[in-house]
Design brief:
The chain is of the alpha+beta class. It has 4 helices and 5 strands; from the N terminus they run H-E-H-H-E-E-H-E-E. The strands form 2 sheets. It has a 3-stranded antiparallel sheet. A two-stranded antiparallel sheet has the order 4-5. Helix 1 crosses helix 4. The two termini are 26 Å apart.
Length: 112
Amino acid sequence: MAYAMGPQLLDGCVLAVLSHGDAYGYILTQQMKSRLDISESTLYPVLRRLQRDGLLTVYDQPYQGRNRRYYAITPVGMAQLARRREEWAQFRDGVEELMKEDVQHGQTYLFG
């Protein structure tokens, strides 16, 4: 079963990948796709929005006679990533608490 990924979570995931180092579009897409069910057509609008909002910068670098467009996280992007990580931890903990089972009674935690 696939779960819908909202824009805030998707933004956070992109920022998290780029916090490890600059990446060009194809590599970034492959890193995201290796963990999430996401398409390139979804990712590029996210990258443009993050750039527009000042969370990423973009630069071109020559590679085998053509340019590759690289994305780099900005200090503002790093601050946003820290906020997204805090929000994710709270959300994840809440969902885990709701989904926890009472092992003794084999029932959902809240309804046991």
